[in-house]
Structure formats: C-alpha cells, structure tokens
Design a protein that fits this description.
This protein has 6 helices and 8 strands. It is of the alpha/beta class. This is LRC43 protein.
Length: 328
C-alpha cells in the first residue's frame, strides 16, 4: 500500500464533498456566477457582516454548516482522535470548497501525517505536495524509501517504527533542507549505514533519532556524525553501542556542538567531566557485561527441600533441573 493510497482513503473518510461540506443544494446560491467566499488558506473564518444577500429558506448559512462540524453531538462531527488539520480541512470545504477539489488540495498541506495505516511504499504521488515541510509516516511497514519521491521542501521526515534496514535509496537525492530525520525503532545495522549519516547527504540536519536499532560501531558512527555541523539533538539509546560504559562521555566529548543526547540536556558540568574521553579509544570495548539478579521464583519446587533418604533405601530419587533463558 502506498502513501498516496492511504491519503486518498483518509480524504474519503473526511467526506469533504458531502453535506455539510462541499457544494450542493444546501449552499448553491453562494456559488452562483462568479461569487466566491472569502477566507484565508487553512484558517478560514466566516463573518456574518460580509453576507451581502439573504440565505434562501431551502439552504443553510456557513455558520450553521460549521456548527454541524464542530458540535460533538452532531452526526457530522469528526470522531475522537482526528487532528486539528482534519477539522480545518472540513471547515475549508464549507467556506471555500473549490480549494479542496481535485489537485488544489495538494497545495494546502504543509504537514502530512499518515500513521499506522499499513503503508509499505513511499510513492511518487508525494511530489504533488509542493508546499510540504513535515512528513510523518510512523508505525507503518516501510522498508525502503526512494528519496526521488520526497518533496524537496521537506524539513521534517519521521519514519519511527517501520522496517527500514538500508539508507542507500533514501540518500540518493535527499531533501536538501531537511532538519529532522527520525529513524527510531527500525532495523538499521552498522557499520555499513554509517557512511550515509554525513553532511554530504544532510547538510542542514539539526535533529537525528537513531534509537532502538542494531547499531554497534560507536567510534565509526560518531566519526561520521561529526561532519554534521548543525546537529544539536541526537538519540542513540536502545542500540547495542549504548551499553559501552563510556558511551555517553565519549559522544559528548566527540560532538562539542551537541545540546541534547538521548533526551537529556548536556550541561557544562557534564561537558567538563567528559573532556578528553574522545581521545581515549582504549576505554571503548567491543563487549558489554549485563548483571541479572533473580528475585523470587514461584510455581516450582524448592530445591533446598530435597528428599532425606535413609542409608540403603531403595526408594526412587526424584531430581529437578531448571533452564532459565534471557533474550536481549
């Protein structure tokens, strides 16, 4: 399923061309001839003082139609969980329905959110969104992103909770003005992906989320990230490389312009305490130790209460053995 298909399904759910939105017998006199309703792009407001002609008895005023959309008890109200942008689109469909018809609707969006819709493909239909600056595609099934299908105007690209394992296609023609790239909870493995995380591909990147992947090469990754001169926010928690004892201090000292690491602000004291760690690569080990303490175990016999057998007894002996597995 493509992003464009999910977007079309969402528009059908909003019913922008059906009562009380769109054009029909309920507002036909407002759009006769060359008259057009007044308003701005997404913040359209109606003003009763601007109504030059009386509303016919068999039609509804814009105020009444808008009330049908906003009243939570109305059968035409949006269900809970819909975004503010969805509400504004429906208001626009009342006040200026021509703006949400056909290809005109693509010029409205500066932000597009398609979350949890089973999307697998980022298709070229996205190029119709010529004003798009923010694209949220979290919690889908995307494994491959062709950068040629992304609008060049993008500043925020969020791909959290997908199945992205390779950044090569994303970095072929990346949006040049991108400021945030979210790749948390994907399937990235190092060190092959490190080479795609440099200023050659992301010269304006300010925020980067790589959390909860399978990145293991801390030294190699930080070496590439050091070329991102505008990077201020970095999230690496949840990767195996974050288990290294000197992980945080090494990153803080290696990236002096960084302000936030793993959602925690880097203060002057921490910066001073980490000074010099980036030059002590011997402190970085390729292994980590995890200590697991077991509390009470219920539902199994107590091994300490073993059978007390008399010498020479021929009674059967019952033994118990247990296997405990840890999955990381």
């Amino acid at each position: 399923r493509s992003v464009s298909a999910a977007f079309r399904d969402h528009l059908r759910h909003l019913a922008l061309q059906d009562f009380p939105c769109g054009r029909g017998s309920w507002n036909k006199s407002r759009f006769n001839g060359h008259r057009r309703p007044r308003g701005s792009q997404l913040g359209l407001q109606t003003d009763a003082a601007r109504q030059e002609e009386a509303i016919p008895l068999d039609e509804e005023s814009p105020e009444v139609l808008l009330e049908l959309l906003s009243d939570p008890h109305s059968p035409w109200a949006l269900p809970p969980g819909c975004s503010l942008q969805d509400q504004r689109l429906r208001e626009m469909a009342v006040l200026a329905p021509e703006k949400v018809r056909g290809s005109n609707i693509f010029q409205i969006f500066e932000s597009l959110r398609i979350v949890g819709k089973g999307v697998e493909e980022v298709d070229e239909g996205l190029l119709q969104f010529q004003q798009l600056e923010e694209l949220i595609l979290s919690t889908n099934q995307i494994s491959r992103i062709t950068s040629a299908n992304l609008p060049r105007t993008l500043k925020v690209l969020e791909l959290c909770c997908n199945a992205v394992a390779d950044l090569q296609d994303l970095c072929t023609q990346p949006p040049p003005e991108l400021q945030h790239l979210g790749l948390g909870y994907n399937k990235l493995c190092g060190p092959l992906q490190n080479k795609y995380l440099t200023a050659d591909f992301w010269p304006n990147l300010v925020s980067l989320d790589l959390s909860f992947n399978n990145l293991t090469d801390l030294v190699g990754l930080i070496s590439q990230l050091s070329s991102l001169q505008k990077l201020r926010i970095l999230v690496l928690q949840g990767n195996p490389l974050a288990l290294i004892p000197t992980y945080r201090g090494f990153v803080v000292d290696s990236l002096p312009k960084l302000s936030v690491l793993d959602d925690t602000y880097i203060g002057p004291d921490e910066r001073d305490q980490s000074h010099g760690l980036s030059r002590q690569s011997e402190l970085l080990r390729s292994e980590a130790r995890v200590v697991v303490s077991i509390g009470k175990i219920r539902g199994v016999p107590d091994p300490s209460a073993g059978q007390q057998l008399e010498v020479g007894s021929k009674a059967p002996v019952i033994t118990y053995s247990y296997c405990v597995a840890y999955e990381f």
